[in-house]
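Lab meeting, action items carried over

1. Structure of the two-component assembly. Owner: GW. Status: complete.
Input record:
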Amino acid sequence: MLTKGRELAQKTGAELTAVLLGKDVRSHAKTLVEHVNKVLLVEDAKLENFNSEAYQKVLAHLIGDHKPLLTLIGHTSFGVELAPSLAVSLGAPLATDCVDVMLENETLTVTRQMYGGKVNVTARLRKAQSYIATVRQATFQPKTEAPLNGQVVEVPSPLSEDVARKRFVQYVAPPPGGVDITAAPVLVGVGRGIKDVSNIPVVEELAKTLGGALACSRPIVDKGWLPTDRQVGSSGKTVKPKFYLALGISGAFQHVLGMKASDLIIAVNKDAKAPIFGVADYAVVEDLFKIVGPLKNKMQELKGQK
Amino acid sequence: MDIIVCVKHVPETAEADIKIDGTGKAIEKSGLVFDINEWDDYALEEAVRLKEKFGGTVTAITLGSEEADATLRKCLARGADTAIRVWDPKFAGSDGYATAKILSKVVRNLPFNLILTGAQAGDDGYAVVGTMLAELLGVPHATMVKKIELNGEAAKLYRELEGGFEELLEVKLPAVFAVSTGINEPRYVSIMGTRKAMQKEIKVVDLAGTGLSENEVGEAGSWIKVEKLYVPPVEKQAEFLKGSPDEIASKIAEILRTKGVL
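Predicted assembly:
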């Protein structure tokens, strides 16, 4: 996001500012100034843990004072909790989950995805003094550039009283799982295409035959067919096995983010246009159940020969 | 506990073949099956469960033309007490912001302790309506909600973060919560329930009923204007393996051997 911000700032002749909010976060400003012209630092005990209401008040104050043409926010869990209400409170047009942002004649144009990543869309935002865009994780590649050595400007916290309507209590770690899919050399990942919970054992057996473990995309965990610790993706685990076999996984961005670094990816899907084929080394357009049996037999046969 | 659930009637596209239509600004809708947005399905179920536990009513509301009645009927069959469809030809082209404005004008006149909706829609994926609606109504919100525990004036809720982590929050009611998939297990509808739902009335609210002007809704009242749809470029071109299932299995085995996986 800093790289993209710098590119946009250079193109439009604008200044690039980073906002750093929190409690005892001053040390991070040193790293940030290398990438921006200015760091606005607001420290307040009320900002220690993320609370969208507190963060929104501070950001609205900073945006009102500094009037940026564009505010970029990560499309993270915190970002989606914060950006839409901030945009409404400021009357600043918002585009979410952008994979590209362009500024021309002070008008914001963005690229987004629709229909689970099957379609890209270019959209133009209504002309305004100030825009907000949330950008998708890992979309822009960081570039190494000469440090900007910006200045740190400390801004007194505009928060006068505690946010009373919404209170952070604590973070909750995921329950420890029985299977560590991040350690498996081979993973068989299953998605919606497996249709029914009764089909889990057959793919589990294939995973065992391949010397690996069974993993899955989010819908399978949502349905309760496999436990959370098997989930690959941005809301689950990031894996990097020697071989990832994707069965009936369409390839939503969130899943792909968790497995695209695998050494070898083979995907089986009935839909020839499934986004998963965009990250696979080899693609099979076929009903996964037609492949699972023959593949298991072939593997057993090879094992027998050894 | 009076609960409003905001739902959307969307095409099922997870396993469908999608084509861009002649205008280049939308997809070809014919041949696609429409249903309640997956995230909203969980929101509806959560609302019905809370009603069953605490009493009260569930009102399902959608912004959409007549076809969206099918989704509202499903809500009624699954336990919603009343259904409202907000539509006017002038609403066509509304983005998330315009949708939130329109919904806010309708729900403002209804009694509610809680508004539930899905964290995002499977079609445009903006993930903004619930949060914007809360801001317009002046009530607190939480999105990506994985669990809700109500206790009187407040709710304890678990929000989804990244990597399987969650955060526990306390939020005062009335509030808007946008829920994640997997928060519950949506129930099946009985044939009796579906039949009963067919007889219930769906109330329709038009532009005049919202009190908004023409330029506050539809494309005129939106922040985002779609310019062009296109098929995303692929990061790398996969090699397609062809043949009978047995031949494909042999090819995969050969690849695994060459790459040293076996």
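2. GW to write a short summary for the group page. Key points so far: Chain B has one domain: 2-216. Chain B has a mean pLDDT of 96.
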